[in-house]
């Protein structure tokens, strides 16, 4: 479980032994998430089953790792860098 800066919790759907680095925040936009989500889906590869809400592969690394962006309908979000 991740505790984000605002105190809310995110439940990554991965092994509890997988180390990761996370940066949490909020999408700052006057648009609601229903408007933002289709643009995220067009721009990035969706990763179903990785997080309790939406997860997108933002950057894939040569070693097979990647940078993930996770977002929730209330516009809370996190960048995750899973460890090896």
Offer a quick outline of the entry.
With 84 residues, this protein is mainly beta.
What does this entry look like structurally?
This protein is mostly beta strands and 84 residues long. It has one domain (2-82). The protein is built from one helix and seven strands, in the order βββαββββ. The strands form two sheets. It has a five-stranded antiparallel beta sheet, covered by helices on one side. A two-stranded antiparallel ribbon has the order 1-2. β5 (54-60) and β6 form a beta hairpin. The model has no long low-confidence stretch (mean pLDDT 83).
Strand order of the largest sheet: 3-7-6-5-4
SS-based class:
mainly beta
Question: What are the low-pLDDT stretches, counting only 5+ consecutive residues below 50?
Answer: none
Work out the number of β strands.
Answer: 7
Biggest pleated sheet: 5 strands, antiparallel
Number of helices: 1
The outline comes out as: globular
Domain tally: 1
Helical residue percent band: 10-25%
Q: Over all CA atoms, what is the radius of gyration?
A: 13 Å
Strand content is 35-45%
Average predicted confidence as pLDDT = 83
Secondary-structure element series: EEEHEEEE
C-alpha end-to-end distance:
18 Å
Topology summary:
Blueprint: E1 2-3, E2 9-10, E3 20-26, H1 33-43, E4 45-46, E5 54-60, E6 66-71, E7 76-82
Antiparallel strand pairs: 1-2, 3-7, 4-5, 5-6, 6-7
Key features of this structure:
globular; 5-stranded antiparallel sheet; 84 residues; mainly beta; 13% helix; 39% strand
